[in-house]
Amino acid sequence: MSVNKRNNRLINEKSPYLLQHAYNPVNWYSWCDEAFEKAKNEDKPIFLSIGYSTCHWCHVMERESFEDEEIADILNENFISIKVDREERPDIDSVYMDVCQKLTGSGGWPLSIFMTPRQRPFYAGTYFPKESMYQRVGLKDILNNIIRLWSTNKQELINKSNEIVEHVNLTNEETEVNIDQTTIDLAIHELMENFDLRYGGFNEPPKFPTPHNLFFLFKRYIAYHDEHALNMCTKTLDGMYKGGMYDHIGGGFSRYSTDREWLVPHFEKMLYDNALLIMAYTQGYMYTQEEHYKNIVEDIINYLTRDMLDDNGGFYSAEDADSEGEEGKFYVFTKEEIIDVLGRDKGERFCRIYNITEEGNFENKNILNLIDKDLSSLSENAELIKECKQKIFDYRNKRIRPHKDDKILTSWNGLIIAALANAGRYLDNNQYIQYAIKAADFIIDKLMKPDGGLYIRYRDGQSMNEGILNDYAFMIWGLIQLYESTFNISYLKTAITLNEYMINNFWDNKSGGFYLNSIESEKLILRPKEIYDGAIPSGNSVAAYCLVKLSRLTGDLSYEEKANKIIKVFSNKIKSYPRYYTFLLLVIMENTKSGKDIVICGNKDDLEIKLFIKEINKHFNSYFTILMNDGSEEIIEFNSNMKDKIKINDKNTVYICENNTCKAPITNLVEAKNKLLEDNSSVFDSI
């Protein structure tokens, strides 16, 4: 950045993305009343540009257009230009991304919207080059055409914008149909049809991890003993790890692969991807006992806690794909570099293992990968690999790192809290749980309001923006997992508080389902309900899952009724394209094939109880819901069913319940474990 450049209004923002544009010659506004009033007063159309700080194509469009004086002059003279960080205002992004997808059939970032001063869009797209080329229209031509139309045929653009808003509203209306076992079977069939038999994963490139598909398939395996479902999971987990989408030196996964083999990634690393992939690889280990899945979980967590953890316990959002203006520069190597770092003998051996060649596989350099390698054979060279990786890690760390987006987002921290608590519980690692506790305590302290509301983000001492559905649903998920990993009642109580706020402020009392934004939020042109499971599960899907879990933990059946209503509200979409709603289908299986509820009466710190829980986690995985009843008033306060679940003869006592009916209490915990084993032979015996 030149010291001679003048800053614009964005210099006063906290968002890393907005600050990246603070020295553009474009007279940017943030999303604010001042911008809309100016557009109305000066009768100018609005150019809305939405992106995020680690977005590669956002950087490209900035270099080509927003740093260009010619484009800036056109925008400043004829438009009111607004910049939005999609991660800080996901509600705005959702509304206008929906418009873009409905108008163009696709979406992505940067998102470029042209709209009236009343915020109604009439033209949409994503990345535009400055000049038109190769049958792709350029931003300059688009701007000039809109200037001409606005001056000669403004009313037509206004009419078109009204029609667009009406069309989007109509296409979002819901009808209810019956969802049954055939819908789940159809989702499995569609996933199998789109499954890559050689490398794993689904659909044509670019290939995204979509861990929720794996959660659904793992649940299918457990509920129905479906070996095909398990095979799709393990093939995908192995394929992603072997490819270059995984950082074999520093740990963690990039956002997606540009090719079928998972070789060439889009190098940015997102907190949400890595959180969900921790869950996926944890499940991989739970259901197969393959040690390399456990090691991958450890590597991802090491990366996140080393590079993405704030001193106060919250986790940062993302790392950029670019460094020094080049995509992937931080992550790739020439063979000569590897030999120089490791020496000839060890270097050649390491290069053979990780497919490093003189020619390279990415712009004459190498993305390390294990594609087509037998993972079981790596143990023969384990010490060599460990030593060489550390030396390359130290060498790489001297490079200029990619930009890190250091804002702390409530929703994504909810996901990592759930992932860490889950991994700590099932991999028997208390340190993971401690990381989850510290992150949860940070979010509760800094981003939760006294009335139970949430803010979206924290950065530089400031909490901002009304939380959306994802903030509540994902944070509740994290707190439920944390309760089941610690049995600290305060986390369950906070989950219930957030859940009540979510119902009171986001629930559609007329039709059912949760809106994306609350009744307290800024009113936009649409109030969407999201259900599609894209890169991450939708807020409604996760909310439904949490409602089912809370119903079982509290005994409040109204929560389960709301979960069922969510499924009914979106049933037509689910039945039409079931593989796009796999997390919600998982909720259906959770509700119908959910295993048992176990009530343990005693002290959670009692050694006998600790060992019993450890055995449950080892043998039964995520098949049960566990509630700890220490006899306190707090427990009875939120679950009145605990009144008659008491210790027998002052002994630790276990109640095994199913379908709201409990069997006779068991005071011998070894007997209780054996009873659970007896009742749940089949799939668990093969693990």
Automatic annotation (TrEMBL):
Q: Where does the Spermatogenesis-associated protein 20-like TRX domain start and stop, copy by copy? A: 7-168
Q: Which residues cross the membrane?
A: none
- Which species does the entry assign this protein to? Vallitalea longa
- Please name the PANTHER family in this protein's record: SPERMATOGENESIS-ASSOCIATED PROTEIN 20 (PTHR42899:SF1)
User: What domain of life?
Assistant: Bacteria
Fetch the Pfam families from UniProt.
Thioredox_DsbH
Q: What is the protein's name according to its record?
A: Thioredoxin domain-containing protein
Listed SUPFAM superfamilies: Six-hairpin glycosidases, Thioredoxin-like
Gene3D superfamilies in the record = 1.50.10.10, Glutaredoxin
Q: Which GO terms describe its biological process?
A: carbohydrate metabolic process
